[in-house]
Amino acid sequence: MISSLHRPTLAKVNLSAISSNIKQVQGRIPQAVKTFAVVKANAYGHGAVAVASHVQRLVDGFCVSNIDEGVELRQAGIRKPILILGVVLPDEIALARDYRLTLTVASLEWLEAAQQKQLDLEGILIHVAVDSGMGRIGVRSLAEANDLISGLLKAGGQVRGIFTHFATADEADDHKFQEQLAFFKELVAGLDYCPEIVHASNSATSLWHREGIFTAVRLGLVIYGLNPSGCELTLPYTIKPALTLESALVHVKKVPVGTDIGYGATYTSSEEEWIGTLPLGYADGWTRDMQGFDVLIDGQRCPIVGRVSMDQITVKLPQSYPLGTKVTLIGSSGDQTILATDVAQKRGTINYEVLCLLSDRVPREYD
Ligand SMILES: *Cc1c(COP(=O)(O)O)cnc(C)c1O
Fold first, then answer.
1. What is the pLDDT at residue 293?
2. How far apart (Å, rounded) are the C-alpha atoms in residues 69 and 64?
3. pLDDT digit string (tens) for 312-366?
4. What is the mean pLDDT of residues 195-203?
5. Residues of the chain with pLDDT > 70: what percent?
6. Cα–Cα distances in angstroms (integers) from residue 3 to residues 6, 8, 306, 344, 361, in the given order
7. Where are the domains of the chain?
8. Which of 81, 154, 279, 356 falls 20 to 30 Å from 258 in CA-CA distance?
């Protein structure tokens, strides 16, 4: 989708907040631990190329979710290791070689399929995924891990890492986390050949479970300055949200009592009211369930009234404001703040989703 540059709706991304969040985490984990910045899904909506370019000197590598995201970074000149966290089908091995992308291999079946198709694994960089209880991808036993690694090595693959992923590192109850950790530790201890990089830590693990760090961390949400647990666990140190979402009033009017607003006429003014219109809607990722939530204008909370349309929303104003008055949808105004986490609570979802849903129609501006 083309970015809409000529309307006053934009996401401002503070790149130095991202680098300072990375340094905050790095200052609290052992120095020898490698840092991978997770920039999948366009860096959680912040812009993968801009983020990776800005932080590449601070980190040891990047994680993305698929081969195209890796190719995008290489084409933008990123040279550090790039690990693809998802499974790439063997058919794309040649592309991984061309772009020096590290593949996640998650099963013996994958290796067998590659060999059946006579695909050349020589020199391909590989991390092996272990399913310790997440149930998504990865080998599920020590025997399979050993068979897979020896098969990959025999085929000329360069097995550089082995990793797992925790399902509940962001929850107060840690019994499942401990089960997964014990499974992974025991598996790693039993390997015939242990790759150099052993990793299990997402943001939540790096924040709340030092024992799950091993030799590298994969930092996603924490570098964008948000709490991976939402509101469940307290952050052990301060991080700074990197993204603000802003728009502006493009239409302001005084309506008499009894005026319907928006599709379905779900809102009717109960008195004489000032109503403002903003140029963003669900096509920008400001979903329909934001009706009833607030925006910030001039340090005040103003409710979204009426349905959220595809391209416009309407808000109730405390007074008249001139066209072009700035509106904050995520961020601070005066002493008021709206976090992506607050938006997520209103929607019954997680802050990750709020960021990722901001569509390409919203331009990203960097400072
Ligand atoms: C997305 C992802 C991460 C990063 O998760 P955060 O919670 O954002 O830190 C780490 N590892 C894997 C396997 C992932 O899919």
1. 98
2. 6
3. 999 999 999 999 999 999 999 999 999 999 999 999 999 999 999 999 999 999 9
4. 98
5. 100
6. 9, 12, 26, 24, 4
7. 15-224, 243-338
8. 279
Give every CB contact of residue 90 below 8 A, 6+ residues apart in sequence.
Answer: 110, 113, 114, 117, 119
Q: Which CATH number fits domain 15-224: 3.40.640.10, 3.40.50.720, 3.40.1360.10, 3.20.20.10?
A: 3.20.20.10
Q: Give the CATH fold of the 243-338 domain.
A: Lyase, Ornithine Decarboxylase; Chain A, domain 1 (2.40.37)
Cα 98 to middle of ligand 1, angstroms: 25
Residues in the chain: 367
pLDDT at 1: 72
Residue 27, class by beta-carbon neighbours within 10 Å (0-12 exposed, 13-18 middle, 19+ buried)? exposed
* Cα→Cα distances 169→49, 156, 260, 341, 355, Å: 28, 35, 47, 18, 20
| Tokens describing residue 251 | 């239409």
Confidence of residue 2 (pLDDT cuts 50, 70, 90): confident
DSSP type of residue 211: G
Give the catalytic positions in this structure. 40, 263
pTM score over 0.90: yes
CA 182 from centre of chain: 27
Is 136 known to sit in a ligand binding site?
yes
